[in-house]
């Protein structure tokens, strides 16, 4: 059967097979040549488009590395990451909150030995360096830092005939009473209290630091500075100076409340004074009149830092370190590309000395009324939280959530400050015993 | 059919049971056994897994004031939810049974709360309870019942009741359906006989309806109780257990302990205690039902 | 209480109570509906505008990203962008789970009711009931571990399998009592005629039990559509997010919540189970009854 159709079919089949093989080779060879690595990087959902842009910039600079970016909503971030680690889900780099560093250090990669790490560590601000060091080892590069200061409503202040923001707590109460008596605000003081990620306990830490002390001593008893701060704070609610409805406001909500122009002060993270919040010309009624003042008394304050870390179980640590450096330090040009953009896009402060000297950064800060040198000075003096509370203890996150609930009860008048302090101590002792 | 064909078909039927059995074992039974096993393990993030812990987790958990509070919160939450759902359900069921014109609308409306996803339920009530623009504040203010807008989810007591009201809303359909069926099962002769004897509406309700409704009422209470004790979504979505620990129920406590703080062993222990408690309550309840049925 | 014998006073009283009950059941979702068609200015008025003066569909347009939608609102609520995709996900997951649960649940329920001895039956049923007593949150830990090891996290098929495993006990329980009451004469006649048990089930019992099957199907679909925590734990991106998870994330924004958009999203998330429950309300009610009363 010399079927001509058969022969043609055979030739066709051969051609098809050849084409398929060539295509397959064409697919495989380039990828083999590039030896591309894909790293998985996990972030929470703050300004996702900005992060995606940074990732694209990084990929452009590093053609051999592709980044698989996963976004987890910040409310579920810590729980989800714990779960993923527990189950050995592979990932390479991630955002890390400083208040879980103690908990996560057991599976984060220490960075001291990586190329350039020592130099970066030396250039870091003390706040950043302390927040990212655990048991003497460095575990992260700074994403951003922030310190706690008083955001005050300058318009309201001047209208009440007050010259400057308070330098002592007694003065703070007096000023608030004056403003209330003048009818300028029903409850002049607003605070972030409810805990979502962080809450009122960090305000406590700031107040205690400003009095020059710690919140808990070595035996987990509440110190006199701690009790004094709690009593003062509770008194402002009792005397009608602080808004009782504000006890259920978390940091974002209290910042938004401040933007309505109904309040005199909000002691909160510095970036809430930026152009995206209090000085947002479109949304804030106090835009152009909201400034940052340091905490009263000794004017020491606390700060916090978010960082980028590497999973110690990662198989692509070199590439992960590359993206960490890009995001948390300098691009190949040696310029702090990402940290500077965060200042402009989110009024987030930085982790390295001298960033405020950059022209673009300084201009951005000045645009909402901040003084770059003043901010830099405050940042330099900001204490890391573990100087005030056992911040890096494995059990700290759990204690803080509990303590925050107790704080809400005290401020609302449902519990006496002394009883609240006792509950803080007891819980700390109980958790410390469990995790000995 | 030939014996071999029958056997083959019989085998096929058995074989077709396999997927269901496998799935149930894999996802409903095995995890429970594993959680039970975990409750005796020391598994805490940051400390590594250090193996068998005996009764340590249980001891720690039972001495923890937060756990006791979660238990009492859960009892209160479940008790009041069940009470509310049962009473409202009974009321609506009686209305349906009274054959008034337009009851058809009510029947159709009854299924709606059950069908709405819990997340939408939470969204709905969060909007209604909103401290600045909420409908509840709007209504009460317009009626002059409150002087100024209030933050309903802001104090532990008010938050707990707000959450209970929102949760019970979703339980009502089940109660209505079961109780309505129970009502229709009561023979009309009893009522007619009572009419003849001169008994009024309330007497009829007390001496005929209520006793004969006891079994369906028992079912409603049992199911609602089991469901309420496990409630998680509504608390997670409305209050996250707050303010403070005002609405911290056991399910949410387990979530926090195991997922957020990484103390998986303790979380598993609380979960097992909750299951044990539910089981015990159910058993007691069913025995009480059976006894009361026997004495009638 | 027969309607004919009711006095006018009683009718008025009952009618008012019925109206209150109707309000109790329909007002909350009704308010959600109205809010979804209200512009932001009216949503932010105190007291609220019970009927919007200027109703708008802009929230829905934003939600489905069609022309006319508020692009800025979308930018500030990036989670909402995943909404259309998650709607489709939920459809797939719910349908898949329903098919598996109804088909295999029916077979197992039938086998259980006919071919398993009385006391064994009771133990199995009791066991199935007990599995529902442990909070779902805790069984998620081992399930997560297992899925992670198999590498099937964040996939729709894994979710379908997990939901099936979690819901089958309930389905079997409901259908078992349904089949227990089934008149056995038809089956006996069929077996005398020489039909195998499987044939009997497929050709005779199954077609006649559509009521129970529809009830079970409605239950499963609505339960899966409703679920939140399982979806939250086992998924990590919009590839597999069910609608409840997408909606939950939109509820926790950093900026001021856009209530019009959220209410619209809530309505869209609720519309399918609501319609299903309405269409199958008869079957659903009978399903609730057979499962509960025989318990």
Structural features:
heterotrimer; A: 436 residues; D-Maltodextrin-Binding Protein, domain 2; 2 domains; 9-stranded mixed sheet; two-stranded antiparallel sheet; 17 helices; 47% helix; globular; C: MetI-like fold; 0% strand
* N-C termini distance of chain B: 50 Å
Largest interface: B-C, 107 and 94 residues
Mean pLDDT of chain B: 85
Alpha plus pi helix count of chain B: 13
Give the CATH topology of chain B.
Answer: MetI-like fold
The CATH architecture of the largest domain in chain A: 3-Layer(aba) Sandwich
- What would you give as the CATH superfamily of chain B? MetI-like
The CATH homologous superfamily of the largest domain in chain A is named Periplasmic binding protein-like II
Whole-number radius of gyration of chain A?
26 Å
What would you report as the Rg of chain B, rounded to the nearest angstrom? 24 Å
Order of adjacent strands in the largest pleated sheet of chain B: 1-2
- Percentage of residues in helical conformation of chain B: over 70%
- Number of DSSP E strands of chain B: 2
SS strand fraction of chain B: under 5%
In CATH, what is the class of the largest domain in chain A?
Answer: Alpha Beta
**Secondary structural class of chain B:** mainly alpha
The largest β sheet of chain A comes out as: 9 strands, mixed
Q: How many domain regions of chain B?
A: 1
What is the CATH topology assignment of the largest domain in chain A?
Answer: D-Maltodextrin-Binding Protein, domain 2
The shape of chain B is: globular
Biggest sheet overview of chain B: 2 strands, antiparallel
What's the helix and strand layout?
The complex is a heterotrimer of chains A (436), B (296) and C (295).
Chain A: H1 4-34, E1 37-44, H2 48-61, E2 65-72, H3 74-86, E3 93-97, H4 101-104, H5 117-123, H6 126-132, E4 133-134, E5 137-138, E6 141-153, H7 154-159, H8 169-181, E7 189-190, H9 200-210, H10 224-238, H11 251-258, E8 265-269, E9 290-293, E10 301-310, H12 317-328, H13 337-346, H14 359-367, H15 372-381, E11 382-384, H16 396-411, H17 417-434
Parallel strand pairs in A: 1-2, 1-3, 7-8, 10-11
Antiparallel strand pairs in A: 3-10, 4-5, 6-8, 6-9, 6-10
Helix pairs in contact in A: 9-10, 13-14, 16-17
Chain B: H1 3-38, E1 41-44, E2 48-52, H2 56-63, H3 65-97, H4 103-115, H5 118-128, H6 135-142, H7 156-184, H8 188-196, H9 201-212, H10 214-229, H11 233-238, H12 250-260, H13 264-295
Antiparallel strand pairs in B: 1-2
Chain C: H1 8-36, H2 40-43, H3 58-63, H4 71-76, H5 83-115, H6 118-130, H7 136-150, H8 156-180, H9 185-192, H10 197-208, H11 210-226, H12 229-234, H13 243-250, H14 259-279, H15 281-293
Helix pairs in contact in C: 1-14, 5-8, 5-11, 5-13, 8-11, 8-15, 9-10, 11-15, 13-14
């Amino acid at each position: 059967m010399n079927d001509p159709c058969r022969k043609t079919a055979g030739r066709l089949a051969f051609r098809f097979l050849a084409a398929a093989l060539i295509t397959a080779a064409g697919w495989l060879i380039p990828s083999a040549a590039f030896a591309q690595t894909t790293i998985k990087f996990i972030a929470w959902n703050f300004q996702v488009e900005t992060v995606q842009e940074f990732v694209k910039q990084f990929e452009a600079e590093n053609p051999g590395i592709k980044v698989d970016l996963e976004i987890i909503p910040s409310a579920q971030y810590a729980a989800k990451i714990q779960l993923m680690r527990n189950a050995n889900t592979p990932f390479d780099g991630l955002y890390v909150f400083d208040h879980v560093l103690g908990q996560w250090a057991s599976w984060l990669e220490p960075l001291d030995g990586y190329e350039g790490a020592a130099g970066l560590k030396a250039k870091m601000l003390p706040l950043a360096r302390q927040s990212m060091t655990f048991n003497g080892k460095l575990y992260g590069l700074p994403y951003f830092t922030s310190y706690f200061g008083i955001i005050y409503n300058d318009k309201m202040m001047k209208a009440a005939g007050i010259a400057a923001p308070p330098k002592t707590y007694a003065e703070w109460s007096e000023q608030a009473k004056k403003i209330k008596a003048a009818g300028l605000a029903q409850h002049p003081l607003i605070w972030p209290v409810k805990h979502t990620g962080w809450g009122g306990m960090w305000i406590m830490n700031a107040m205690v630091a400003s009095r020059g002390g710690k919140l808990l001593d070595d035996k987990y008893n509440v110190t006199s500075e701690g009790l004094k701060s709690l009593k003062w704070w509770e008194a402002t609610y009792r005397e009608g100076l602080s808004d009782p409805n504000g006890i259920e406001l978390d940091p974002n909500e209290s910042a938004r409340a401040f933007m309505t122009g109904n309040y005199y002060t909000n002691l909160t993270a510095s970036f809430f004074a930026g152009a995206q919040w209090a000085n947002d010309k479109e949304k804030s009624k106090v835009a152009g009149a909201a400034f940052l003042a340091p905490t009263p008394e000794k004017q020491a304050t606390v700060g916090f830092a978010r960082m980028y870390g590497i999973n110690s179980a990662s198989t692509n640590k070199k590439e992960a370190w590359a993206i960490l450096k890009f995001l948390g330090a300098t691009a190949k040009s040696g310029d702090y590309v990402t940290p500077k953009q965060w200042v402009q896009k989110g009024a987030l402060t930085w982790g390295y000395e001298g960033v405020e000297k950059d022209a673009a950064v300084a201009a951005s800060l000045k645009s909402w009324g901040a003084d770059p040198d003043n901010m830099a000075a405050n940042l330099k003096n900001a204490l890391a939280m573990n100087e005030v509370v056992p911040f890096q203890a494995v059990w700290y996150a759990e204690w803080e959530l509990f303590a925050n609930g107790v704080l809400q009860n005290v401020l609302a008048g449902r519990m006496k400050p002394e009883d609240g302090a006792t509950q803080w101590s007891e819980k700390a002792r109980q958790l410390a015993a469990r995790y000995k | 059919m030939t014996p071999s064909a029958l056997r083959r078909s019989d085998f096929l039927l058995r074989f077709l049971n396999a997927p269901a059995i496998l799935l149930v074992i894999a996802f409903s039974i095995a995890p429970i056994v594993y959680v039970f096993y975990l409750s005796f393990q020391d598994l805490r993030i940051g400390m590594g897994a250090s193996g068998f812990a005996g009764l340590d987790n249980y001891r720690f958990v039972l001495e923890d004031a937060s756990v006791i509070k979660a238990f009492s919160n859960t009892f209160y939450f479940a008790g009041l939810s069940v009470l509310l759902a049962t009473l409202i359900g009974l009321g609506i069921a009686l209305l349906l049974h009274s054959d008034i014109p337009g009851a058809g609308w009510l029947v159709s409306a009854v299924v709606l709360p059950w069908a709405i996803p819990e997340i939408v339920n939470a969204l709905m009530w969060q909007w209604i309870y909103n401290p600045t623009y909420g409908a509840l504040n709007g209504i009460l203010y317009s009626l002059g019942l409150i002087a100024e807008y209030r933050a309903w989810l802001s104090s532990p007591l008010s938050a707990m009741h707000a959450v209970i009201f929102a949760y019970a809303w979703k339980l009502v359909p089940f109660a209505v359906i079961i109780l309505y069926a129970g009502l229709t099962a009561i023979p009309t002769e009893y009522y007619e006989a009572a009419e003849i004897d001169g008994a009024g509406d309330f007497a009829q309700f007390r001496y005929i309806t209520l006793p004969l409704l006891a079994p369906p009422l028992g079912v409603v209470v049992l199911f609602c109780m089991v469901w309420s004790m496990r409630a998680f979504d509504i608390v997670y979505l409305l209050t996250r257990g707050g303010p403070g620990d005002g609405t911290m129920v056991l399910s949410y406590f387990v979530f926090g302990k195991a997922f957020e703080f990484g103390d998986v062993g303790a979380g598993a222990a609380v979960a097992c205690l909750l299951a044990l408690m539910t089981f015990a309550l159910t058993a007691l309840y069913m025995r009480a039902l059976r006894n009361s049925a026997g004495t009638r | 209480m027969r309607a004919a014998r009711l006095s006018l006073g009683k009718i008025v009283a009952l009618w008012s109570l019925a109206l209150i009950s109707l309000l109790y059941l329909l007002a909350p979702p009704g308010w959600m509906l109205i809010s979804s068609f209200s512009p932001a200015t009216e949503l932010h008025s105190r007291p609220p505008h019970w009927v919007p003066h200027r109703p708008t569909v802009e929230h829905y347009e934003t939600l489905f990203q069609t022309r006319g939608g508020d692009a800025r609102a979308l930018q500030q609520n990036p989670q909402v962008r995943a909404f259309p995709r998650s709607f489709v996900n939920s459809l797939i997951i719910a349908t898949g789970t329903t098919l598996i649960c109804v088909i295999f649940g029916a077979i197992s329920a039938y086998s259980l009711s006919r071919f398993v001895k009385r006391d064994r039956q009771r133990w199995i049923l009791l066991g199935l009931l007990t599995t529902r007593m442990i909070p779902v949150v805790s069984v998620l830990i081992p399930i997560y571990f297992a899925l992670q090891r198999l590498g099937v996290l964040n996939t729709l098929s894994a979710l379908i399998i997990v939901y099936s495993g979690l819901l089958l006990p309930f389905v079997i329980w409901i259908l078992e009592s349904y089949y227990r009451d089934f008149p056995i004469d038809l089956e006996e006649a069929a077996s005398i005629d020489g039909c195998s048990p499987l044939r009997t089930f497929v050709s005779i019992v199954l077609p006649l039990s559509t009521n129970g099957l529809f009830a079970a199907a409605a239950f499963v679909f609505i339960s899966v559509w409703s679920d939140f925590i399982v979806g939250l734990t086992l998924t990590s991106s919009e590839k597999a997010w069910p609608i409840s998870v997408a909606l939950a994330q939109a509820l926790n924004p950093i900026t001021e919540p856009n209530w019009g958009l959220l209410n619209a999203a809530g309505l869209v998330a609720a519309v399918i189970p609501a319609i299903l429950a309405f269409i199958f309300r008869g079957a659903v009610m009978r399903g609730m009854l057979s499962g509960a009363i025989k318990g």
